[in-house]
Amino acid sequence: MIGDPVGHTLSPRIFAWLFAHLALDRHHYTAFRVPPPELPAALARVRRGLLSGLSVTLPFKEAVIPLLDSVDAPARRFGAVNCVVRGDDGLLTGYNTDAQGFRRAVELGGGQLGGARIVLLGAGGAGRAAAFAAVAQGASRLVIANRTRERAVRLGLDLVDEGIAVPDGPLRTAWTESGRPPLPPGGPIPALCRVSVAPLHAKALAPALAGADLLVNATSVGLSDPTSDPLPPGCRPEPGALVLDMVYRPLRTALLRRAEAEGAIAVDGQWMLVYQALEQLRLWTGRAVDDGAAAALHAHLGGSGP
Q1: Which domains does the chain show, CATH number per domain?
Q2: pLDDT, tens digit, 9 for 90 and up, residues 187-221
Q3: Tens of pLDDT along 7-54?
Q4: Distance between the two ends of the chain, CA-based, in angstroms?
Q5: Could you say which of 3, 61, 139, 242 is catalytic?
Q6: Whole-structure pTM value
Q7: Catalytic residue status for 61
Q8: What are 144's strand-pairing partners?
Q9: Do residues 284 and 52 make contact, with C-beta atoms less than 8 angstroms apart?
Q10: How far apart are CA 21 and CA 161, in angstroms?
């Protein structure tokens, strides 16, 4: 793994467990702190065969893209790479496994993305992967709430530009103001996901949460602080809704505790972390593990069962 910082990461523990579980005795995984100016040199070491692949974390998920020989189509759409594979020819290909991890974590909680009404908090790299995964899987409504409106609008318009969503509410106005082609009259196309944007305050979020099937926190609020909650006071998830917090330290965040108190289903961020790592394992080694092993790995990291 390369990033700056990397001292907090659980990835070495994850892959040490996986390599032992699969008896991949010659495999080894290490986290390297790489200052930003040293990123090209780190990629050069992989090209020379000193490493077979990389996990990529902040702040390099976007910066690594122009240094690669090719980028998988989904990763290019997300605008973020978190996995690099070195081919036998020395060429480097970038992938993004966050979308797979997100989808599997939702399924683990008993949810499904097809037809879902979703509120997404955050529009950064992991949020983008979740948004594209949800819309591609047939979500019916997506509201993107972000501290910076421009970033939420950019993500929403990117989804529409892909032809998999239609703008709704304030995003429809942003589409028109951007100078893009006129939208057909008569409102959103029923077969496509309706995407809108909202600020991170209660007046806008409370109506969006009403009837939402899935609430996703893709912000860093709550990281290492069990008292911080990304939802403004006065907002609450619907009873029976699924709440997925991508933050995994602490494991039981304030958002997840609030979700459980409201009768919602809480899925901790460690599940997404595990499942995205399993996809990286497959890309590097061609090996896979079953859901039982995924649950054992989650428990090994200090989490509870599904």
Answers
A1: 2-96+272-300 (3.40.50.10860), 99-267 (3.40.50.720)
A2: 556 679 999 999 999 999 999 999 999 999 999 99
A3: 889 999 999 999 999 999 999 999 999 999 999 999 999 999 999 999
A4: 27
A5: 61
A6: 0.93
A7: yes
A8: 120, 197
A9: yes
A10: 43
